[in-house]
Amino acid sequence: MNIKYRILQSLRPRRDGLLLRLDVKSFGSPSQVSAALRSLVDGGLIEKLDRGIYAKPAKVAQFGRETLLESAALRIKNLRNQFVRHIRRRTCLTPTARYVRDLAKNVGVGFNPIYADRWASSVTKLAGDEVQSDSTDDLLVALTRSGKLTPEDMVALVIRHHRDLKRV
Q: What is the rounded CA–CA span in Å between residue 75 and residue 16?
C-alpha cells in the first residue's frame, strides 16, 4: 500500500476533513511523506492550509480556511498537552519505581533487551497497539530474569507501579 493511499485512507473518516502532518508521519520517512503530500496537493485531492496542516478541498469550501486553521490549532494544543502529560507520567518516580530502581542497583542488575523483547515490541506495534514499557517495567523484567524476583512478585510490583502512575 503506497503512502498516498494511506494518507487518503486516514483522511476519509475525519468529519472536519483536517489532516495534520503529525497524523501521517509514521507512514514513511519524512521525505517520502513530504513527496506524497506534495503529490496529493498537486493533484487537488488535498489543500495545504499552512505548514503541516492539510484539508480536503470540499471541507475548505464548506467551513472556510480560518475555521479549519483554528480547529487545527486546537488539535495541536491538545496533542501537546497529551505529550506533556505522557512525559510527566514517564519521568515521575513513583514509590514503587524508586523501590525497584534501588533494588536493581543494590543487586547489580540492569535491563538489556534481548531478541525476544525487540520481537514482542515489533509485533505489538504491527498489531496497532501502543503499549510502551517504561524503565521500571524493564527493570522488573531484568530482576525476574536474573532470579532476584519471583514471577509472582514481579506481577505484584508491575500492578502496584501502574496503579501509582494512574494516581500521579
A: 11
Encode pLDDT of 52-67 as tens digits.
Answer: 899 999 888 888 899 8
What are the φ/ψ torsions at residue 48 (nearest 5 degrees)?
-85, 120
Locate cell 536493581: which residue? Answer: 104
pLDDT beneath 70, residues of the chain: 1, 85-92, 168
Query: Rounded to whole angstroms, how far apart are CA atoms 41 and 168?
Result: 44
Identify whether 74 is part of a domain. no
Burial (CB count within 10 angstroms: exposed 0-12, middle 13-18, buried 19+), residue 159: exposed
Please tell me the distance from the alpha carbon of residue 130 to that of residue 85, in angstroms, as a whole number. Answer: 16
Instruction: Find the domain containing 147 and state its range.
Output: 88-167
CATH number reported for the structural domain that contains residue 8 in this entry: 1.10.10.10
pLDDT value for 78: 84
Q: What pTM was computed for the model?
A: 0.51
Does 41 reside within a domain? yes
Exposure string for 40-79, b = 16+ CB within 10 A, e = fewer: beeeeebbebeeebbbbeebbeebeeeebeebbeebeeee
